[in-house]
Amino acid sequence: MILQLSGVSKSFRIGSNTVEVLRDISLELKSGEALAVMGPSGSGKSTLLHLIGTLDSPSSGSVVFDGQNPFALSEPDLARFRNRRIGFVFQDHHLLPQYSLLENVLIPTTAFPGNKENGGMRASELLQRVGLSHRLHHLPAELSGGERQRAAIARALMLQPAILLCDEPTGNLDRSTAHSIADLVLDLHKKEENILIAVTHSIEFAERFPLRFELNEGRLRRET
Q1: What distance lies between CA 56 and its chain's CA centroid?
Q2: Topology of domain 2-222, CATH
């Protein structure tokens, strides 16, 4: 997988004003690479992830995956592309409270036909890898915050996405739990050989990434 951003900008209309959030961002990442993006609140970090995750489209420039422009796809095909190729981990785990951990991890397989083959085996394996093999049939409310975030990471990896996007994955956790989640994210990234992009306020978390960029005033700059 090669991810290429070329001259990406994003602006929003607020009343009669245009607010430019991202300005002329270019970036290239390959499978196995890991990038941390830091920046102050409101700098556009989440907007950048939304564009890479195809949840929103750029105002100008291009986001290309292995030479393919996903925004040229029909809405159903774009949804399938997103489901198969991109995994998301958010600051809040977003687990469905009425389902067990195993059922939550299996949710990505229910979106489209053909996703369920060997799904139960893959889900159980991932929950074992994140240290939750003894919690398969527990509800989210029965778990700690760190355990819920571990389950969310397993869910994001369920369909072996080429790109894993993490939006403040340690933001709601105490320091010790945050450290263990950071260990887990980076370890699984190496084993899955995906592209990992994390936006974070945590300097400690960001310093563990081989590539680090700062997003400020809409521009992305590599830290030296």
Answers
A1: 14
A2: Rossmann fold (3.40.50)
How far are the Cα atoms of 28, 75, 113, 133, 185 from residue 104, in angstroms, in the given order? 32, 25, 18, 14, 18
At 41 the pLDDT is 84
Tokens of 215: 């997003």
Residue ranges per structural domain of the chain: 2-222
**pLDDT given at position 14:** 85
3-state helix, strand, coil in the chain (%, to 5): 35, 30, 35
**Greatest Cα-to-Cα distance within the chain, rounded to the nearest angstrom:** 55
pLDDT number for residue 113? 75
* N-to-C CA span, the chain: 26
Q: What pTM does this model have? A: 0.94
Residues of the chain with pLDDT under 50: none
Q: Is 22 left (phi over 0), alpha (psi -120 to 50) or beta?
A: beta
- In angstroms, rounded to a whole number, what is the distance separating the alpha carbons of residues 3 and 78? 16
Closest CA to 219 of 23, 63, 5: 23
Structural contact between residues 52 and 37, judged by C-beta atoms closer than 8 angstroms: no
Residue 105's Cβ-side half-sphere holds a number of Cα atoms within 13 Å equal to: 33
